[in-house]
Structure formats: C-alpha cells, structure tokens
Amino acid sequence: MTAADFTLDDAQGVLRLVGDWTVAGLPAMERRTQHLHAGGDHRPARVDASGLTALDTAGALLLIQRWLGRAPWPPIDGLRSADHDLLNLVGERIAAPRMKKRKPFGLLPMLERAGVATEFAWMQLKLLLGFFGQTLTTALAIAAGRQKLRWTSAVHHMERAGLDAVPIVCLLSFLVGAVVAFLGATVLADFGAQVFTVELVSFSFMREFGVLLTAIMIAGRSGSAYTAEIGMMRAREEIDAIRALGLDPMELLVIPRVLALLVVMPVLSFLAVLSGIIGGALVGGTELGISPGLFLARMQETAELRHLLVGLSKAPLFAIIIALVGCLEGLKVQASAESVGRHTTSSVVQSIFLVILVDAIAAIFFMEMDL
After folding, report:
1. For residues 334 and 243, what is the distance between their CA atoms, to the nearest angstrom?
2. Concatenated DSSP letters for 50-85?
3. Residues in the chain with pLDDT < 70?
4. CA 103, CA 108: separation in Å to the nearest integer?
C-alpha cells in the first residue's frame, strides 16, 4: 500500500494526488490538512489524479471536504471511472439535505399507537385461545388412545422445570417471607400487635405469594427455556422435518411440557409456601421474640386449610398459561437468532402479565365466593 499524499502547485493551481486514499492511510492525512476547508482560497483550478492508486468513501469525503467543495468541481484528470462514480455519489450524499425525522407527538399519534397495541393484544389473545384449543384436542386424542403420550420427554421436563427449580424457588420465597415478616412487624409494632405478624405471613403465602412467586420464577426460567428450545428447532427446520415424518409437533413438543408444568407447579408452590413461612418464622424468632413454638401454635389457631387450597388451586392454571405461551412463542420464531431472542423476551413478558391478571381475577372471584 502506498501512503496517501498530495502536492499543490500554487502557481498553476493544480492539486496532484498520489497513493492510496483509503481509510487505512487517512488519519495522518486528515491531521495534516485539518487547517484546510473547501470554502478557502486554496481550491485548485485542476486536479491531477493520475497518481491516485486507490480511493474509498473516506478518501472521497476528505477530498471533497478539503478541496473540492460543492459541485461543479474543477476538472479531474486521470481519475478512473469507478473512482469518479464513487466521488460523485459521496458528493451527492453530502449535498442532499438531511431530512429530520419527525417524532409523532400529540393526541392522534397516541391514539394510533394505542389502537395498534390493542389490536395486537387482541390478535395475540385469539392466537393463544386457538393454540389452547389445539392443545386440548391433542390431549383428548391422547386420553382416547389415538395418540401417544411421550412419558420420557414429560419426565425429563418435570426434572428440569421442577426438581432443578426447587433451590431457587425455596430461596426466593424464604427471603420474601423474611421481608414480609420484618415489614409487617415494623408496622404492627405501632399498635402493639407484633404477634399478628404470624397471620400476615401465613395468610399471604398460603393464598397469594407462594403460588405467585413460583409462577413468576417458572415463567422466567422454564417458559423462556421452552420458547428458546422450540424456537431453535424451528430455526433449524427440525419442526418441518418432524411434520415431514408424519409426526405431530403438538404431541412431541407441547403436551410433555404442559404436563410437566401441571405436575410440578403445585409441588413447587407448596414448597414456596413452606419456605416463606419458615423465613417469616426466622425473623419472628430472631427479631420479634416470637419463638418457633409460639409461631406454630398461632398458625394452628388461626390458619385454615382452605387458604392453602385456594392458593394451590391456581397453580395448574398458571402452569397451563406459562407452558402454552412459551411453546406458542417458540413456534412463531423465524429463521434467525434475533427472532429467538425477541420471542423469548415476549414469552416471559406475556406469561408474567397473564399470571398476574389471572391472579387478580381469581382473588376477586374467591372473595366474592367468601372463600
């Protein structure tokens, strides 16, 4: 590579270019000519480019900014046709006015965005309901013996979604239980009623926190994994190969995952309830002077089994939501890694939103039913 250089004949007004005017050799040239600009008196009457051996967009830009300026340019001798075209293209881009993109503000653009988001949410809901119907049809076909249940796959997913998730679910619930007990005791201490911390922790975890924390953890952990696994299979056209072999992806991929979460979610929720209560009991024993015996006795007096059953009754519903959203988003993946990441994120967001929405509806329902 020949270094970029130039000479300017002031007497004849000729600018002679030599070497490679490419990005690799331009930093030194740019520092050397930084005092020049195209609007000055040094604009050449003619350019001799016969010694120019290479030109790229960076070199063309520097040449225009330092000497040529706006068109029409002075005659350029010895410039190759391709380099001439590149120089013209860069000149046109510089001369073109920059269109500043207007940001849509105001009431109408806001209503337009709200309408588009509402339509998207409605289409997603219809798609999810259709996918649920398809899953239910396959499950009924398996129950009737027309299709097979893949027990090996189901047990494998039970282990991954259930057994492997026990430590993180229990630890998170334990910590939240400790925080709830501490905050509750801090507020109740003003009324001299710290002992009611037992009811606060036990009721909240049996009815809401146990199953809700478990669902959020499973949505982020297993739901996203379902989307990524099925999405990568779709990107590698493995699902098309499954269909070409005459097999049903719903039977092979979706039903085992739904069944796995249906089995493990109630178990994980029960463990989360126990961990949260233990966390609350630990704070009660160390900070509030409520001994473990008093804590258990108070729970035995006040806590009823129906609270635990109400909480655990929501676990299968959350399991179906998380599994269906995770599998559906995986089947919507296109053939790119970017699509896998986008649908995985969408899967987690949709699952957590639907879980919280359904939990709120269930809470109102159970309250109206006096349960």
Report:
1. 17
2. EEEEEE-HHHHHHHIIIII-SSSPPPEES--HHHHH
3. 1, 38-42, 97-103
4. 13
